[in-house]
Amino acid sequence: MKSFTALLLSAALFTPLAALAANNAHDHGSSAPQQLQLNAGKKWDTDAPLRQAMAAVHQSVTQILPAAHEGKATAANYDAFGQAIDQQIAYMVENCKLPADADAQLHIVVAELMAGAEAAQGKHGDNQRAAGVVRVAKAANAYGQHFSHTGWKAVALPH
Asked: Is there a domain that residue 92 lies in?
């Protein structure tokens, strides 16, 4: 996941508009957002760094989700959560090495993780922080549906 995409994803950690750019990085003129697809009906292969990072994302989101749902998470909780997700994204960018087709699919998940982390950190207003956590949870679940990760369990969403 190095090269131009790594630069783009790294920049997205620091700029709100870059997340939109990452989501459309492979957009060749169409306005429709990319949608995750399976690899000829099968889940995409993963590597150890990706599985490690996504396991950490899963742990972070399952820890904060109940408090976010109950309205008990503090701004500091949300900020720490968003920073933890950002760190895992940076780790993926630096260490994950997937084939091009799988990598392109992973970019869709990463863009959602970034957008969720950004919202959780209050970059779209304090009223969007809990929604950011849910967005990360949904991205994690999409990852589990489309990528092979032994032992992966979906994040249970409150509603």
From this structure: yes
Residue 138: inside a domain: yes
Token readout for 1 is 């996941």
Residues 6 or more apart whose CB falls under 8 angstroms from that of 1 comprise 9, 92, 93, 96, 97, 98, 103, 106
Q: pLDDT tens, 109-145?
A: 999 999 999 999 999 999 999 999 999 999 999 999 9
Amino acid at the residue 53: A
- The domain tally of the chain equals 1
- Is this model's pTM higher than 0.85 or not? no
Residue 139 domain-assigned (yes or no): yes
For residue 92, what are the domain limits?
A: 1-11+47-159
CA dist list (Å): 53 to 43, 46, 122, 137: 18, 11, 23, 14
CA distance linking residue 31 with residue 117, whole number of Å:
24
pLDDT at 3 over 90: no
Residue 126 CA to residue 75 CA, distance in Å, equals 8
